[in-house]
């Protein structure tokens, strides 16, 4: 894909994800408006919007059309991702003062409100995702069974089942068997892993803490589009590769990146004495593994007949990202 076309399409789909997210922001009102303001401060801090973009592109590739249903999930997954960053930045975790080029939520609103803002984002994410099922009931005439033949009614319930399946995947990949589980092991692992267990432990952390939510994004897009179980399995593997490659690249940038370009402090892993892919494998091997994982993911996409040229280009773009 030509660079100019890729840059234009990336800008367009990122702007779409941004627009959808803004449509789902909670109103800053009521006695609890400060925590809502902290939530919105976190959500509007910018970022690549990678997960909603991946969800949309997987949805398109698998034949999905229209943004009403998938849009609820696009906003939801960005809320879940953002809450995890808000909590990561807390003094009890990474103790970071800057994220995406500005002061972190806890530093602006206090660490107690930072905790509550993260909690609020996680819960509001599922409120938002559940709006997808409300859309069918309120706007798709599913309750008016007298005017609907059996075949049409069955199709409507099939689409509702996709929403419930997508919710189940999102919850599992974000929870104790996914992102939260990876975060917990990451905290417990600091300085504790035996040398012969370090790589296995690190890969568990990367798979669950980072890859799980990327898998969720792509799987949800595929599920909502009506993909087969076999296709969803391939998407899950593809998301694993992307997530691991993305995290390794993040480890590389923590060593080689520029803090102004990244919008956050670099060298925090070394400062916190955290084991990373770079400390285990070295910079050169880490770079090679990012490229190999990304290209394997791109090859998996070639097994799909739907449009995926931009999605492939996006994956390969991760190899060379500098922020």
Provide keyphrases for this structure.
323 residues, mainly alpha, two-stranded antiparallel sheet, 15 helices
Provide structural commentary:
Helix content is 72%, strand content 1%. The protein has 15 helices and two strands. It has a two-stranded antiparallel ribbon. The protein is mainly alpha-helical and 323 residues long. The model has no long low-confidence stretch (mean pLDDT 89).
Low-confidence stretches: none
Mean pLDDT score? 89
Question: What is the end-to-end distance?
Answer: 21 Å
- By secondary-structure content and strand pairing, the structural class works out as mainly alpha
The oligomeric state of the chains shown is: single chain
Strands of the biggest beta sheet: in what spatial order? Answer: 1-2
- Major sheet: size, sense and barrel closure? 2 strands, antiparallel
Helix content: over 70%
Order of helices and strands: HHHHEEHHHHHHHHHHH
């Amino acid at each position: 894909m030509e660079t100019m076309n890729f840059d234009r399409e990336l800008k367009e789909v990122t702007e779409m994800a941004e627009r959808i997210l803004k449509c789902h922001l909670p109103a800053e009102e009521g006695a609890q408006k400060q925590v809502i303001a902290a939530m919105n401060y976190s959500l509007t801090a910018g970022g690549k919007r990678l997960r909603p973009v991946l969800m949309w592109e997987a949805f398109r590739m698998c034949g999905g059309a229209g943004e009403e249903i998938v849009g609820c999930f696009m906003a939801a997954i960005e809320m879940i991702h953002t809450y995890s960053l808000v909590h990561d930045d807390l003094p009890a975790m990474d103790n970071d003062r800057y994220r995406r080029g500005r002061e972190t939520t806890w530093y602006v609103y206090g660490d107690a409100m930072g905790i509550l803002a993260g909690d609020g984002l996680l819960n509001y994410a599922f409120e938002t995702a559940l709006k997808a099922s409300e859309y069918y009931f309120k706007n798709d005439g599913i309750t008016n069974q007298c005017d609907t033949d059996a075949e049409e009614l069955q199709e409507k319930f099939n689409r509702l089942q996709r929403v419930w399946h997508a919710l189940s995947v999102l919850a599992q990949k974000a929870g104790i068997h996914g992102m939260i589980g990876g975060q917990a092991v990451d905290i417990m692992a600091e300085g504790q892993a035996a040398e012969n267990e370090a790589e296995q432990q690190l890969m568990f952390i990367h798979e669950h803490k980072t890859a799980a939510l990327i898998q969720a994004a792509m799987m949800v897009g595929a599920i909502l589009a009506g993909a087969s179980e076999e296709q969803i399995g391939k998407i899950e593997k593809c998301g694993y590769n992307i997530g691991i490659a993305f995290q390794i690249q993040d480890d590389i940038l923590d060593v080689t990146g520029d803090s102004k370009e990244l919008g956050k402090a670099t060298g925090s892993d070394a400062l916190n004495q955290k084991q990373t892919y770079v400390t285990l494998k070295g910079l050169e091997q880490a770079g090679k593994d990012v490229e190999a994982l990304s290209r394997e993911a791109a090859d998996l996409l070639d097994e799909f007949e739907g449009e995926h040229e931009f999605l492939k280009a996006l994956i390969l773009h991760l190899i060379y990202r500098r922020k």
